[in-house]
Amino acid sequence: MSRRAGILEFAVLGLLRESPMHGYELRKRLNTSLGVFRAFSYGTLYPCLKTLVANGWLIEEPGNTSEDALAAPLAGRRAKIVYRLTAEGKEHFEELLSQTGPDAYEDEHFAARFAFFGQTSRDVRMRVLEGRRSRLEERLEKMRASLARTRERLDDYTLELQRHGMESVEREVRWLNELIESERAGRDLKGSATEPASQDTTSGASGDLPRPGDTSRPDSPDDTAT
Q1: What is the C-alpha to C-alpha distance for residues 120 and 153, in angstroms, rounded to an integer?
Q2: Which residue, 209, 216, 189, 200, is CA-closest to 11?
Q3: Contact at 8 Å (CB) between 100 and 122?
Q4: What is residue 78's predicted lDDT score, i.e. its pLDDT?
């Protein structure tokens, strides 16, 4: 399985843990709530769903709304299929949530993991945040060393681009420092004291995430998918 396919499966399981959804609803939530999936198609989503069904982590059910019931006779189409997380799928997703290996720190995977921090225990959140910070600090050190070696050979525009990249990484490191400090103090993103997140919570993804270098706070998820 490719890394990107693994991230997509993780995100689909996480969203379906919140509630069963049609494929269209899933695609909308992936596009609006998880920025890393803004540019992907049904041709990517449906093979992923079929794989998860084959693994026993999802089941397919016919839509039961009045709109779905009328879809076939009125439009000559099949009723929409609803995808529901199985008990095995929930167990698998919780296992994925607990993992804190190097993949959790990479750009795309970190964004997806962060989106489900509301369903992740505090100790796991801390390990992922600290791992991400360490990864970026290593990246920043390499960027600074490279710039020092090549500064005299770069034109003004290339040099400015290099500086912009370094500033973006520096902003994300500062953002991570703030998050880590909040976690250590037992605060959520709004600054109030909270209990560690339970693995049994059914809250949804925490929303769109800053890409590397973006220090804006995540927006609230679009809960109006239809």
Answers
A1: 47
A2: 209
A3: no
A4: 54
